[in-house]
Amino acid sequence: MSEEDRPVAKHGEPVPGSQSGQPIMILFDLLSRRWAMGILWGLSEKNRTFRELQAYCGSASPSVLNTRLKELRSVGLIEKASDGYTLTSTGRELYNRLEPLGDWAMEWVPTI
């Protein structure tokens, strides 16, 4: 089953690379899907329409982008707003927790 056909796992359900179904593994599985992180980063700056997200994500096909938006909406990380898509408070909290990890990675990558 391709990632586009695979629903977001629920607690206790296995995900690729982990049979445990632990919440962190479900999150990593979701965030590792094509353009999921790009969407979160793009919406961290401002609300964006589908076309703006497509431009922000560069080579994301409309079908993949649409699938990611549906997945991220289904788990409460983003929502539709009058001016496009926006992070929910949960999505904003996730972004705020991931941003320091991104900063750490910028320092780490030159060392490898």
Characterise this structure:
- Keywords: DNA-binding, Transcription, Transcription regulation.
- Residues 1-21 are annotated as: Disordered.
- This protein has 5 helices and 2 strands; from the N terminus they run H-H-H-H-E-E-H.
- By secondary structure, the chain is mainly alpha-helical.
- The protein has a two-stranded antiparallel ribbon with strand order 1-2.
- The mean pLDDT is 90.
- The coarse silhouette is globular
Give the topology string: H per helix, E per strand. Answer: HHHHEEH
Beta strands, count: 2
- What CATH architecture label applies? Orthogonal Bundle
Distance between the termini: 34 Å
Number of domains: 1
Q: Which class of secondary structure composition applies to the elements? A: mainly alpha
Largest sheet, described in full?
Answer: 2 strands, antiparallel
Radius of gyration: 14 Å
CATH topology term: Arc Repressor Mutant, subunit A
Spatial order of strands in the largest sheet: 1-2
Arithmetic mean of pLDDT: 90
The CATH H-level superfamily is Winged helix-like DNA-binding domain superfamily/Winged helix DNA-binding domain
Low-confidence residue ranges: none
> What is the CATH class name?
Mainly Alpha
Q: Which band does the percent of strand residues land in?
A: 5-15%
Question: What distinguishing features does this structure have?
Answer:
Arc Repressor Mutant, subunit A; 53% helix; two-stranded antiparallel sheet; globular; 5 helices; mainly alpha; 112 residues
